[in-house]
Write a structure and sequence with these properties.
By secondary structure, this protein is α+β, with helices and mostly antiparallel strands. It has 15 helices and 14 strands. Among the domains are: 103 residues, no CATH class; 115 residues, no CATH class.
């Protein structure tokens, strides 16, 4: 925002910040919280400590101490934020995704050579899963976790020098109870935390980076949370009509047990066998250049991966939706999803929810280019979580301003 735009919304920003930071015991921390968010909202190429402090006309050390060293719990702020934005957005889904932060050095917590979505290749970076409250009209990140690679876990059996790793962790002030956890498990932990704050997930949406892992899908099912998640084309499936049967007993050895005798088939092959005649053209929303439409196939299937079969050993595999997008002109489908939405869900709704992840790209673009999500230069665990939490507060304020027809100045 320009200084003039920021001044026009100053009163609303101060009210919102007071609400977000109401859990702080000290008045000076509440003041620094509002200043930091104001610094993130103010125009400027960099949203790191020194340039923000200069634009705000405040002491850089005070700003840095508040973000990096002050002992405030970022979860308290995120809980306030989640309650406020859940009421404001009324989300149709919680979207799980992750974002990467390219780094040059080796001392930032969690930095390692790993897949970097920002660059589309393996690079030196941090990776952070997040959960967003989403509708087609608005969205907001309300929980974050910084991923800890195995190289940062002194207790990992793959760690060659535990003492060096322990020293590195100590420099970054990583808590002793924080170790390497798969990203899908971090996502489930964040969902559990949001539920512990009193929020109720209507539906979880995720790309194949999460949906391909059967443990993530099982975790959602165990929590009775419906989902629409991306999967790879080689995901093992059975047709919905498949059922367990018992082979005739030969009279010797162990008696046969019920099992599925139909062949498992990949999602790709299943859709290809259905052919183009099974496709339906669906328009799911209006884009900037007109209506968005494509062709989709929706089939009832039973997931048949190893983890799923083990989880349902002795019982019937669940039936769910396989959704595939097969655009005109393409020789085969380009995207696949599995969903546990009800059997009579309209195809347009199923497609719309599968595609609602577009809002997250909007979030990350604004969080990075406008609010300095990846500008944090500190090297502490708490500092990183404080920064992304404060960026989320700034993003939420922008979202509320856009949703408020009486507040055009913050658009």
């Amino acid at each position: 925002m320009t200084p003039q735009e920021l001044e026009a919304v100053r009163a609303r920003l101060e009210t919102f910040a007071a609400e977000m930071f109401s859990g702080f015991a000290r008045a000076d921390q509440r003041r620094w919280g509002e200043r930091y968010v104001r610094g993130l909202l103010t125009d400027g190429a960099r949203k790191s400590m020194e340039p923000m402090a200069a634009r705000l006309g405040v002491d850089r050390q005070g700003l840095q101490q508040f973000c990096t060293d002050a002992p405030w719990a970022h979860q308290l702020v995120l809980a306030e934020l989640a309650w406020r934005m859940d009421a404001a957005i009324n989300p149709v889904a919680w979207v799980v995704d992750d974002v990467s932060f390219v780094k040059d050095g080796q001392e930032s917590p969690g930095v390692a050579a790993q897949y970097c979505g920002a660059l589309g290749k393996t690079a030196n970076c941090q990776v952070a899963p997040s959960v967003h409250l989403v509708t087609d009209a608005a969205s907001c990140p309300v929980n974050w976790r910084l991923f800890v690679p195995e190289q940062w876990d002194a207790a990992s059996p793959r760690t060659e020098d535990p003492a060096a790793v322990a020293a590195r962790r100590q420099r970054c002030r990583i808590p002793a109870d924080v170790g390497h956890v798969p990203k899908w498990q971090l996502a489930l932990d964040m969902i559990d935390e949001l539920e512990s704050w009193g929020l109720d997930p209507p539906l979880v949406v995720a790309d194949e980076g999460y949906g391909q892992d059967g443990a993530f899908r099982l975790g959602l099912t165990e929590r009775d949370i419906p989902y629409v998640v991306g999967v790879r084309s080689d995901t093992a499936l059975l047709e919905a009509e498949a059922c367990r049967s018992v082979a005739p007993y030969a009279g010797t050895g162990r008696r046969p047990v019920p099992r599925y005798r139909q062949r498992r088939i990949s999602a790709r092959q299943l859709v290809l066998e259905g052919g183009r005649r099974a496709l339906h053209t669906v328009r799911w929303r209006m884009g900037s250049k007109g209506p968005l439409r494509s062709r989709f196939a929706a089939l009832r299937v039973r997931p048949a991966g190893v983890r799923i079969r083990r989880a349902y050993a002795g019982g019937e595999l669940p039936v769910c939706w396989l959704l595939a997008e097969w655009p005109p002109g393409e020789p085969e489908p380009v995207k696949y999803w599995l969903s546990t939405l009800e059997a009579d869900v309209p195809l347009r709704r199923l497609v719309g929810l599968a595609k609602i992840r577009w809002r997250i790209e909007h979030d990350y673009r604004e969080l990075k280019t406008g609010l300095g999500l990846d500008h944090f230069e500190g090297r502490t665990w708490s500092g990183w979580h404080h920064h992304v939490t404060l960026v989320s507060v700034a993003h939420a304020f922008c979202t509320l301003e856009r949703l408020n027809p009486k507040a055009p100045a913050a658009a």
